[in-house]
Amino acid sequence: MVLVSILTATFVGGFDSSSMLLAAPALRSALGASFAQTQLVVAGYTMSYAVALMTGGRLGDAFGRRRVFLCGAAGFTLTSAICALAGSPAVLIVARVVQGLTAALMLPQVLAIIHASLPAPVRRRAVGLYGVTIGLAWVAGPVCGGILMAWNPFDLGWRALFLVNVPIGALVVAGAWRAVPESHGPRTRLDVTGAALLGAALFLLLSVLGRSLVLAPPHAVAALGAVGILLALFWARERRLEARSLSPVVPPRLFREGRFARGLAAVLAFYAGNQGFLALLSYYVQDGLERSPLVTSLLFSPLSAGFALASAVGGRIPAATERRTVLGGIALMATGLLTFTAVVSCAPVSLQLAVLPAALGMLGLGQGLVAGPLISLVLSAAPAEDSGAASALLLTVTQLSHACSVAVIGSVFSALLGGASGVAAHARAASATALVVVGVCLLAGLLLRRLFSGSGAARKSGDRVAA
């Protein structure tokens, strides 16, 4: 019951964000929203969520993970209903920002609850399931969102994407209220100044990535400089607090062993490639091939099915073969991406729609083999007492990777397309952009290889000490 409650919350949080990728045209027509307002509906959630994640993780450590999880889940359910009832773009944008804040209270508690509430023999498997849930939510969101909008129950249109959260959220609250035990981290005062510095830095960084939303291009360099200054001030404060045995927002000791930092770099590259390709596929199919959101979502379905299948199989692979399995998953991802590039470049549209599902299935299989073990390996490097902060930091990195990849891939695709139109121009731009995603995928493979090598060395050293 504990796992069902908290993993359902994890799925809903990721699904809510990824399903909105296909809802932008419907939002513009139904609410009369501008392009910038529509983008803010998507980005408002992501920005507030990413900015508040670290604070949410520390609040759970200080005031009780069950209590903060329940407050976040109840708030997420309520704001989902408000989003569904919004009658103007302004109301929807504000509701989405608040919804992101409630998600930042709810989701960082999940891994901390796993570490605090589950017995050691099942903890590793539970963390693997958590990684699978994150990935499945991001690949299933566009599929289920497109199908739900095509089905259009009770003529709700895009509102159904928010209303579906309400009964699921109520079940999450009820299950967690009954089953999840209370746990705490160190009971220390929240570092409000550190949280404000980190939040301001993340907000500016995400604003630069979504440059058309908040900042004009001439201001981007100055904003990046401000981000660097804020992060330097934040890190100096965190080191000072740790030296005084106080509780920083991000404990510097997380990075001392090295594996955690290398793991976060691998997470950044892995999720950047995944989300960047999802955005590219959505651009190409809807704008280039002029297919509906339903057709786009159906093309996503082999990717989702492959991810689910590989995740189910990968969870049973022995630890001794985990390294080969993960690197094999990266190779499978690269093969799927290169197949996509070849098909888009050379095949007619009718053949593309027939062959692309096979390429996307390979990509999903590779992603499923990598996601769970990667999350488990990263979090195993964090001390148990900092599980809330480590979980929040991991989620922050995944959100930054999503924002970076969508911004960069969208910019590359737009620059290569220029002012051209038609299937051929979109195919050239999509195939060239896909090669950029292949490069990101291979970078993730190199980082993972180094991460597993370091993990193996650490295990051997531990064995020698034990002997």
UniProtKB/TrEMBL annotation:
Location of the protein in the cell: Cell membrane
InterPro entries in UniProt: MFS (IPR011701), MFS_dom (IPR020846), MFS_trans_sf (IPR036259)
Protein name: Major facilitator superfamily (MFS) profile domain-containing protein
Keywords (A to Z) from UniProt: Antibiotic resistance, Membrane, Transmembrane, Transmembrane helix
Transmembrane segments: 40-56, 68-87, 93-114, 126-151, 157-180, 192-210, 216-236, 263-285, 297-314, 326-350, 356-380, 392-417, 429-452
Pfam families: MFS_1
Major facilitator superfamily (MFS) profile domain boundaries: 2-457
Domain of life of the source: Bacteria
